[in-house]
Design goal:
The chain is built from three helices and no strands. The chain is mainly alpha-helical. Helix 1 packs antiparallel against helix 2. The longest helix has 26 residues. The radius of gyration is 33 Å and the shape is elongated. The termini are far apart. The mean pLDDT is about 75.
């Protein structure tokens, strides 16, 4: 946990320094400037956190992936298929000739 915090501070520290250097040079700040700076800082913090967390994610071994796929395959439920040749079922018509009742 400490390593993550140190890396996050190492990424954010230069951004904070730049903001602190630009604030006195800008003189009076308007609401738009403050809003833009806050949005940029929040975006940079989000990007840094995502980067740090992505690097800390544990790798999943390939055997676990195979096992998960196999388990999901075993849990998949298939409905029984209807038998077209079952007794009492009419045979499907082949496309081609129109029935006399439908031909107009």
């Amino acid at each position: 946990m400490r390593g993550r915090t140190v890396r996050l501070v190492a990424v954010l520290l230069p951004l904070v320094q730049v903001v602190l250097l630009l604030l006195p040079a800008a003189g009076g700040l308007s609401l738009a400037d403050v809003t833009l700076a806050a949005t940029a800082a929040a975006g940079a913090a989000l990007a840094a956190c995502a980067f740090v967390l992505a690097r800390c994610a544990p790798a999943v071994p390939p055997t676990r992936v195979r096992t998960a796929i196999r388990d999901r395959d075993r849990r998949t439920a298939f409905l029984p298929q209807r038998d077209p040749d079952a007794r009492g079922r009419t045979r499907p018509r082949a496309p081609g000739h129109a029935l006399p009742a439908t031909a107009a």
